[in-house]
Amino acid sequence: MDGKISPPNTAALFDVHTHHPEKTTIGAKHSFVASGFSHESNEEVIAYSRKTGCLFSYGLGPQEIQREDRYPDLEKAIGAIEKQVENAMADAALRNRLVAIGEVGLDKHWGKTTAERERQFLALERMITLAGRHSLPLIIHSRDAESECIRQLLAAQALHASGGPRPSAVAHASGLRIIMHCFGGKLEEAKLAANAGWLISIPPQANSERKRIIKALPIESLVVESDAPYIGKTSEDTMKSAEMIARYKEMELEDVLKKTAENARKIFRF
Predict the structure, then answer these.
(1) pLDDT at residue 156 in the model
(2) Does one domain contain both 137 and 199?
(3) Element (H, E) at 58
(4) Are residues 161 and 222 in the same domain?
(5) What residues contact 37, with CB distance under 8 A and at least 6 apart?
(6) pLDDT tens digits, residue range 156-205?
(7) Per-residue pLDDT at 76
(8) Contact of 250 with 19, CB cutoff 8 Å
(9) Looking at residues 212-241, what average pLDDT do you find?
């Protein structure tokens, strides 16, 4: 033995959430999901998928749809995203690469007014329906609104499971598959999500509550992401997320890479 430590197997990474893939995934040898958050960014990720064959998700971020100045016609804006999804699902070359709806969700950090938050809520309801209609998982943005997101998603599941009256938002919500993207909530909230069978996504950004969550939840409840270029600089910074999990859970890094990739493939059915 020469005492040298083998470098981590970057190819084993599975980044469940990165943006602007033409900039953040250059030379990537690992799996990643290029995620949209607006009509324009959705077009960007689909163009990149057509070019490279990468996996992608279509989204409508709460920090986007809350902007009445940019989206004066709420119905038209939501309908445009729904149309993008319908078109991709009708395209034999794309339907197997569209693996999720997201990012979508709620955001109280940027959504300050009642009107802004109501727009976010209504958009999320429609995205829940859209995901259910196509049997796709949701990638949930929940900045400073973790409890509200979890409550809305659990209500969708409960109303469907009860067999009672179903508003349109939950008409197709059976068996929701959910990734809580860049989760920044409390341990108790993370446990609620994990107990519902959802996944907690760990970005390359450490803090004390994230440490508690990683230590407390089983590895089966975790996936990793870069959220590049907003948190990680590139998609490969997802390795920092995996290293954080390995450190806090006292696991071998290769085991973390293997298990989080398995979790991602399972939820995306890829």
Answers:
(1) 87
(2) no
(3) strand 55-58
(4) no
(5) 19, 59, 60, 61, 63, 64, 103, 141
(6) 877 655 555 444 444 344 468 999 999 999 999 999 999 999 999 999 99
(7) 97
(8) no
(9) 98
Q: What is the DSSP letter of 138?
A: E
Check residue 8 and give its pLDDT. Answer: 75
In the three-class reduction of DSSP (H, G, I as helix; E, B as strand; rest coil), residue 178 is classed as strand
Same domain, 139 and 217: no
| Residue 255, number of CB atoms within 10 A of its CB | 14
Q: Report H helices in 59-174.
A: 62-65, 74-89, 114-133, 146-162
Rounded Cα–Cα distance for residues 99 and 97 (Å)? 6
In this predicted structure, what is the pLDDT of residue 88?
97
Q: Does residue 170 share a domain with residue 56?
A: yes
Q: For residues 78-102, b (16+ Cβ closer than 10 Å) or e, as one string?
A: beebbebbeebeeeeeeeebbbbbb
d(CA 229, CA 160): 37
Q: Are residues 144 and 236 in the same domain?
A: no
CATH number at residue 50: 3.20.20.140
Judgement on whether residues 169 and 89 belong to the same structural domain of the protein: yes
- Say if residue 41 is in the same domain as residue 128: yes
Task: Tally the domains of the chain.
Answer: 2
Is there a domain that residue 21 lies in? Answer: no
Within 8 A by CB and 6+ apart from 174, the residues are 132, 157, 160, 161
Say if residues 32 and 25 touch (Cβ distance below 8 Å): yes
- For residue 176, what pLDDT is reported? 86
Q: For residue 231, what are the domain limits?
A: 182-249
Does residue 205 share a domain with residue 131?
no
The first and second tokens of residue 225, run together, are: 């992401």
C-alpha 36/C-alpha 48 separation (Å) is 11
What's the residue count for the chain?
270
Q: What distance in Å separates the CA atoms of residue 22 and residue 42, rounded to the nearest whole number?
A: 13
pLDDT digits (tens, 9 = 90+) for 113-147: 999 999 999 999 999 999 999 999 999 999 999 99
